[in-house]
Amino acid sequence: MERGGPPDHHRRLKRKTFGVIFSQPTCYTFYFSYKAYSISMTSHDQENDAALTPYQAAGGLEGITKLVDEFYANMERLPEAQVIRAMHPADLTESRKKLTYFLCGWLGGPKLFQQHYGPISIPGAHKRFPIGYEERDAWLLCMQRALAAQPYSSELKDYLLAALSIPAERVRQVNRGEI
């Protein structure tokens, strides 16, 4: 990752981004959509700044597993999420593993989903489900609450929610035949 620039796997998004490039010595800027998100680093992170990715900022596999566990706990307990909970199998073990593995690779870590399941198209994988605004919003609510429970910086939480909103909307659009 370059100081003041996007991480390699999000480089293509730079063309869509408007705003200021943050070049403070203790921050990196992650680009997504039309906003720039600055992730603050500790002095330890600064020493190892060349290797910092969103995956690492989220705590690696352990941190992402905690995020996914909280996400599915929210899906179980939130009344607004019952519509999407009903789309999942009774045993969420495989669903948890798939989301964890996907997020690892998507955030710049190991490509665990591809290693275990092969390539994925998020809209294609969800096409069999009736996903509209209510379902999209329920999914994002579960993720928002899960992110709020994590020890991530507020900048990382904002970045992840904004970033995950893009494929969530795309799934809705594909399922409704809008694209």
Describe the fold and architecture.
By secondary structure, this protein is mostly helical. 52% of the residues lie in helices and 7% in strands. It has 9 helices and 2 strands; from the N terminus they run E-E-H-H-H-H-H-H-H-H-H. It has a two-stranded antiparallel ribbon with strand order 1-2. Strand 1 and strand 2 form a beta hairpin. Helix 3 crosses helix 5, helix 3 crosses helix 8 and helix 8 runs antiparallel to helix 9. The two termini are 33 Å apart.
SSE layout:
Elements: E1 27-32, E2 35-40, H1 43-47, H2 54-57, H3 60-77, H4 82-85, H5 93-106, H6 112-117, H7 122-125, H8 133-148, H9 154-175
Antiparallel strand pairs: 1-2
Helix pairs in contact: 3-5, 3-8, 8-9
Helix content: 40-55%
What fraction of the residues are assigned to beta strands by DSSP?
5-15%
- Low-confidence stretches at least 5 residues in length (pLDDT < 50)? 1-43
CA radius of gyration is 17 Å
Cα end-to-end separation? 33 Å
Helical run tally: 9
Strand count, sense and barrel status of the largest sheet are: 2 strands, antiparallel
In sequence order, what are the helices and strands, one letter per element? EEHHHHHHHHH
Shape: globular
Major β-sheet strand ordering: 1-2
What is the mean pLDDT? 79
Question: Structural class, judged by helices and strands?
Answer: mainly alpha
How many strand units?
2
